Every structure is written in C-alpha cells, then in structure tokens.
C-alpha cells in the first residue's frame, strides 16, 4: 500500500509539473509587448513554480530514500532472525543448556518481544529476560545513551543499581561503548585487557559487554552480562546469540528514542 501511495504521489507531482510548464510556455508566448505588469505576473508565477519544483523533488527523493532505508533494514532484520534461528537450533547449545524445549525454533517469536515494546523501560525488560534465557546471566544491566551520557535503564540481580545511574567515562562499559567493541571475558584474572582478581560477591569469572548498535552502526547503549548460572563460563555461541538478539532489538530501541525526542 505504501509503495502504491508513493507511486501515485510521484505521478501526481509529475503531472502537475508538466501541466504547469505547459501553462507557463503558453503564457510566455502570449505576453503582450510593452506591458510590464503582465510580465511581472509571469515572473512571480515562474518563481512560485521553481519553488514548487524544488519542493516536489525533495519530497520525492525523501520518499524514495525512506522506502529504500526501510527495505534495507527489513532485509537486515530478516538476516539477523535467520542467524538467531540457526544458532537456537544448534544441538551443542541445547545439550549444554539442558533446555531443549525452551529453545525450540517454533518459539523463536519469544525472542522478538522487544520489537513490540512501547517504552524503553519495557524494551530493556524484554532484552534482559531473553538474555537470561539465551546465556544464563544472572546479573544484567542495560545502559542507554541519553545526550552525552550512558544511563542505566534496567537491571537484574543488582539490588543497589538505580535507574538513571550514570556510567563513569573510565568504566569498562563506557570504554567499550565508545569503541563500539564487544568484550568477551572467559577468565577475568588472565584476560589481557583486565587481568585483575574477581570482585567480591561474584562467583563466575566470565562476563560479556556488548554495545547496542543499529545496522548502520549507530551507538544506542551497552549491555553488561555477568554471573553466569552455576558459576559457569560464557561460550562463543551464547555471545553470538545475544549479539544477534541485540541487533534485532536495536531497531525498536532507535524508534522509541526518536519518539522520546519528539515529546
């Protein structure tokens, strides 16, 4: 329906421009010699036509570009869903998690819930829930970029965390957000970029930091996942699945943030 509307709009503008050009041509040929007033009217109409032509061109180009962008986003979204589907169907992951029934491909729709979120808080809640199912992280925090700051939107397993809490520039999550780089740590004490003892109260030595970016590589936030259940270690398959989930969900987050800016 949208394509039909765009086509009809373009056709209508083209017809108007063509008829207007014809009218201007006839008017110019019929201009009486020596009548300045008629000539002035013609020049005014010519300027109005020029502005209309420019505005019509901008509208048509904007419509085509918008449609092209939506098509590219839809194609990329379909690819991400397919990748996530394939990952969810991996037997090694199902055996490791021991929850084959939860990870059945027919229930893939569950992992698309963030796309139906109506607020950023609801979006973050859905992402946290799906991340827990995908990788078993018991402590998860979602930070969203607002202005120049990264602010906590939602968390799980962190009783002292407060919504709106700002991430310090020296924090590891902030640095990964700036670099738009994933951090996959299997052993914190031997990792080349960290190499420090595990914090008190944490049983697992493994964690993930994943920037939230759109297909166009626009940075929207970052998500931290720690404390894998049973003090386990996150796997590459789990990292891949969470990354695909976040890429899919980022489309909706971008829309929600744009809606917030308009309010």
TrEMBL record:
Membrane-crossing residue ranges in chain numbering: 39-64
**Record's InterPro entries?**
GAF, GAF-like_dom_sf
Is Transmembrane helix given among the entry's keywords?
A: yes
List residues of the GAF domain: 126-246
What keywords would UniProt list here? Membrane, Transmembrane, Transmembrane helix
One Pfam family in the UniProt entry? GAF
Provide the leader sequence positions.
Answer: none
| Protein name per Swiss-Prot or TrEMBL | GAF domain-containing protein
Give the originating organism.
Answer: Thermospira aquatica
């Amino acid at each position: 329906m949208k394509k039909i509307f765009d086509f009809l709009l373009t056709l209508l503008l083209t017809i108007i421009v063509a008829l207007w050009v014809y009218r201007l041509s006839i008017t110019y040929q019929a201009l009486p010699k020596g009548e300045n007033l008629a000539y002035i009217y013609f020049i005014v109409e010519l300027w109005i036509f020029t502005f209309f032509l420019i505005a019509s061109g901008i509208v048509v180009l904007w419509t085509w570009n918008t449609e092209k962008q939506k098509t590219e986003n839809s194609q990329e979204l379909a690819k991400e869903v397919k990748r996530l589907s394939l990952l969810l169907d991996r037997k090694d992951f199902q055996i490791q998690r021991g929850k084959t029934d939860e990870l059945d491909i027919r229930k893939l729709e569950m992992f698309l819930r963030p796309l139906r979120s109506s607020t950023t808080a609801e979006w973050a809640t859905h992402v946290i829930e799906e991340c827990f199912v995908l990788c078993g992280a018991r402590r998860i925090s979602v930070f969203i970029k607002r202005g120049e700051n990264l602010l906590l939107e939602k968390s799980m397993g962190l009783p002292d965390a407060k919504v709106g809490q700002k991430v310090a520039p020296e924090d590891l999550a902030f640095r990964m957000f700036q670099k738009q780089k994933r951090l996959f740590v299997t052993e914190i004490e031997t990792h080349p970029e960290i190499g420090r003892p595990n914090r008190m109260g944490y049983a697992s030595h493994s964690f993930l930091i994943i920037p939230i970016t759109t297909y166009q590589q626009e940075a929207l936030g970052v998500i931290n996942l720690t404390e894998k259940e049973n003090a386990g270690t996150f796997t590459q398959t789990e990292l891949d699945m969470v990354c695909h989930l976040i890429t899919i969900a980022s489309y909706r987050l971008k829309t929600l943030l744009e809606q917030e800016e308009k309010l």
